[in-house]
Amino acid sequence: MHRWLVAGLLTVALTACGPEKQTLPDCDLDVEKLTGDWVSLTGAGGGTDKPDKYARIRFHEEGGKRKAIYTAGQLAPNNPATNKYDYEYIEKTSLGDVMYSINMFPDKSPQRIERLRKDNRRLDVKFEGRIYVKVDVKRCALVLSDMYVTYVKGEETMDSNPAGTRTYLRANPNEPPLSFVHCDESRQIIPFATREVDWDKNPVSLNPKEGIYKGEPAFFHYVEKRFEGSKDEVDAELKKVGVKAEEGATYDFEIWAKDSPVKDLQKIAVVPDPEDDNRIPWIGEVVFDSAPVDGIFVEMHRYKTKDGKRELLGNACTVVWPEPERTAEEKAGDEGAKDGKK
After folding, report:
1. Stated pTM of the model
2. How far apart are CA 98 and CA 102, in angstroms?
3. In the predicted model, is pLDDT for residue 285 greater than 70?
4. Which whole number is the average pLDDT over 257-274?
5. Do 133 and 92 meet the contact criterion of CB atoms below 8 Å apart?
6. Among the residues of the chain, which ranges form H helices?
7. Is the pLDDT score of 253 beyond 90?
8. What average pLDDT is seen over the chain?
């Protein structure tokens, strides 16, 4: 009798201490209603993850269409730049995720693309980019699969891009925002040691890997492209890109570094020089607070405001590799060498 009593009590005790039914956290994410900025996670060793800002995405609406700007990861080893791609919502799949797509040959006609599909023999030729997005309810996060489509002898093949499949969390609102502005003017900001530069004397710019130091100013000058045609045609192009001022317009710029806005270098007004054919001196003075091995991606977002509307003229960008901070003795030695002193 006692034996059965003990067994019964033990059964009750085990039932009371057994695993309880787990409840999932409230998650209101809907793949059909995605908005805002998201940052990927990557392995940090030891089974942990860390944010990787080089693979990030922004969901937004434009012209009544759902779109996404995606960076796809670091451009190359030891290069902190990112490419940015515009994707457009296509559909919700039978698996419950949604697909966004980008045409990798936007300048080619449908007939030309069809011909390329039939003639292509290489697996690395990317015809279309596709992002598949689903919700991880357990983490209340997004899971993105970064894929590309190619065609070999007309047959469709899909493979993974380098970023692959990752978990994405909402960008931390307490941290600086991340840039989603396309760089359409690569290497058109050049660092110099001084604000004033005499362009007629072929000035020597700072070496992006050796001439810039942590804690010392570098002056980034915007350098426009060369345009051909009559003076009126060239002037019209220079006004369009913001090299020459347009009547009734005002101008400003922002400097971004490490993918985030540089403090005190936002909405910096620039005034055209009437003694220089009304040209606009786009010059940003930057003092770097670090000297990372991978370098620093620097952007100059240039804006024009007219009739109350502020519009982006262009984003000029480059990469520099600041050296560690110099001592007073090193600075004096460098200045002496410039003056021809020993």
Report:
1. 0.84
2. 14
3. yes
4. 96
5. no
6. 2-17, 110-119, 231-240, 328-338
7. yes
8. 90
Positive or negative torsion for Cα 211, 216, 221, 222:
positive
Q: Which of 104, 154, 96, 106 is nearest to 130 (CA)?
A: 104
Residue type, 5: L
Bridge partners of 58, per DSSP, are 37, 69
How many angstroms separate the CA atoms of 36 and 92, rounded? Answer: 19
Which tokens go with 70? Answer: 């995606």
Q: What separation in angstroms does the CA of 12 have from each of 4, 15, 61, 134, 342?
A: 12, 5, 57, 42, 91
d(CA 272, CA 324): 36
Please state, in angstroms and rounded to a whole number, the distance separating the CA atoms of residues 76 and 82. Answer: 9
| Strands 309-320 and 185-186, bridge-based pairing | parallel
**Residues making up the chain, counted from first to last:** 342
Q: What is the dihedral of CA 298, 103, 54, 269, to 10 degrees?
A: 30
Give the chain's count of helices (H) and strands (E).
4, 19
The total of other beta-carbon atoms located within 10 Å of residue 60's CB is 14
CA distances from 342 to 211, 324, 331, 338 (A): 20, 24, 13, 10
For the chain, first and last CA: distance in Å?
105
**Residue 39: both structure tokens together:** 């940052």
CA-atom Rg of the chain in angstroms: 27
For residue 339, what is the DSSP state? T
